[in-house]
Amino acid sequence: MRSVSKLWPAVLVSSLVGCGGGGGGGGGGPTPQPNASIGGIWKGTDSISGLPVIGLAAETGQFHFIRQDGVQYYGTGTTSGNAVTANFTGVTPLGTAFPDGSTYGTGTLSGTVSERSTLSGSTSFRTAAGNSDSGNVTLTYNALYDRDSSLTTIAGNFTDVKTGDVVSVSASGVIFEQDPATGCVVNGNVGIIDSRYDAYSVQWTYSSCTGANAVLNGLTFNGIGTLDNTVTPEQAIVGVTATTGTTGYAVVLVLQRT
């Protein structure tokens, strides 16, 4: 598995906009509005960089926003009604950095979500070197998220469309891969977050990496994946990250079922 995959999963660019629901009134006044979920597969543009962004978010509030250049912003969002707030971390792929040379930073998001429709807000971000930016993001929902998830559904062999490496996922969710070019061996697992939706928890650890990739040895990466059955062969899109101190690493994989 190479540390950086710059292929962009264009299959997720189209979106289907749905509507969230509100509470009715009666008796002593309006029924309190339930907290909206940010769960979904989202697409939009990062106003700071101008680059497309795809967001993978679970019903737990956990999210990984993946920028076209492989930078990832991840955290957990909380909602109150339709208001959403989050603290997040931003990291870059191995061998790349933010403009000031940092590979790590932290930020905040404040905005609104219309469940299964739109997610928008303002962001601020500060790198480990102390440089700050602010911007906004508007994302639209992709109905691919409505697909059920299961270990049976995700199990099988996949080929990394960038490197040609084979990634295997067992019936119990065990992940294995070995990259002849870097020597990296990957051992991990995939899990079900909510079987009603197409989002999977993903975790793996690197070992035996050589050369520039040796810094990955012993690091455990965590993130979210989704499986797209609207294309043939099916594609899995995975975004994972790891940090050590103020150094961050982001990995994005686009995998075709074989």
SSE topology:
Layout: E1 25-26, E2 29-30, E3 40-46, E4 52-57, E5 62-67, E6 72-80, E7 83-91, E8 104-114, E9 118-127, E10 132-142, H1 151-154, E11 156-160, E12 166-169, E13 174-178, E14 185-192, E15 200-207, E16 220-228, E17 235-244, E18 247-257
Antiparallel strand pairs: 1-2, 3-4, 3-10, 4-5, 5-6, 6-7, 7-8, 8-9, 9-10, 11-12, 11-18, 12-13, 13-14, 14-15, 15-16, 16-17, 17-18
Taking the sheet with the most strands, its summary is: 8 strands, antiparallel, barrel
Helix and strand sequence = EEEEEEEEEEHEEEEEEEE
By CATH, the architecture of the largest domain is named Beta Barrel
CATH topology (fold) name of the largest domain: Lipocalin
Mean pLDDT: 90
What percentage of amino acids are in beta strands? Answer: over 45%
Helical content stands at: under 10%
Please give the oligomerization state of what you see: single chain
What's the CATH first level of the largest domain? Mainly Beta
Rg, rounded, reads 18 Å
Beta strands, count: 18
| Poorly predicted regions | 1-26
Q: How many structurally independent domains?
A: 2
- Structural class of the secondary structure composition? mainly beta
What form results from the Cα inertia axes?
A: globular
